[in-house]
Amino acid sequence: MITISMFGKWVLKIPDRYMDGSAMSNELGSLSPFIRSIILRPDLVAIDTYCYKRIVEYCKGAQSVAEYFAGVGIMTLLAEEILHPKFHWISDYSDDCVAFLQDVLCTKYANINCEKRDAFNMQPYQVHSYDLISLDCNMSYGKLVNDPRYRSLVSMTVKKCPKFIHMSDKAAAYFHVNKSKYTKHFGFNVDSIEDYLVGLSLCFRDFGYHISYAIGYKTASHILLTKGIAGSFDFEWVDRADDVDIFSS
Ligand SMILES: C[S@@+](CC[C@H](N)C(=O)[O-])C[C@H]1O[C@@H](n2cnc3c(N)ncnc32)[C@H](O)[C@@H]1O
Known about the structure:
Layout (H helix, E strand, L loop, with lengths): L1 E5 L3 E5 L18 H8 L1 H16 L6 E4 L6 H10 L3 E6 L2 H14 L3 E5 L15 E8 L1 H6 L1 H12 L4 E6 L5 H12 L6 H11 L5 E9 L2 E8 L6 E4 L6 E5 L1
Parallel strand pairs: 3-4, 3-6, 4-5, 6-7, 8-10
Antiparallel strand pairs: 1-2, 1-11, 7-9, 8-9
The structure holds S-adenosylmethionine (SAM).
S-adenosylmethionine binds next to α1 and α3.
């Protein structure tokens, strides 16, 4: 069993049966990648959990939420408890994650619908016209520009005109390798992740959105897009999340 205890208020327990019965053995190969990362890097998942909370807090007033990379529903639970949405759609392509989400979260919250779905193979009509759409898909400038799967998902999402779009971005993990490329592509000196996010925000102008809030740590960032082409945004840096505890028993 893995227990994720959040901010002294909310708890998610992942029983061994959702981990193909291998629990904390060394046979991690059959686990869904995200559940594997909870076991291997609980420190980073704790920071992500802190970031999700900050993102959700910025979406006050959102009455409907769709998450197409729902994982084990950490963000789902935070959105439920903080926003109390009327409608909440969650999907993931992992059997383990979907089984867990249906069993634990759909039975607790009657407004949640969960299905197995490959987010990169959705038809436009399958994307919801909801207030908050979360794409926790490890985006980056390179993927946005060069990968048709990511570009198409973003295009379908913005066509639904959500008030808020959340995305995770992995550029921080390889920032030192790519920063000269970002400087060249963006046409200004990119020396920090915050500079990179300024350039990324400008890329979303093509879609009619801009970054209005971002929170980052050493290997990833979470960004919140809202409509319009405004220039500046709040940026927060986080080193660790002391109030999120992840442990196995
Ligand atoms: C970072 S985790 C999401 C964590 C989640 N937001 C949470 O709060 O628990 C990314 C998830 O995306 C899922 N995933 C990866 N590729 C996918 C795809 N093409 N379609 C749907 N889900 C996908 C993985 O199974 C994983 O659970």
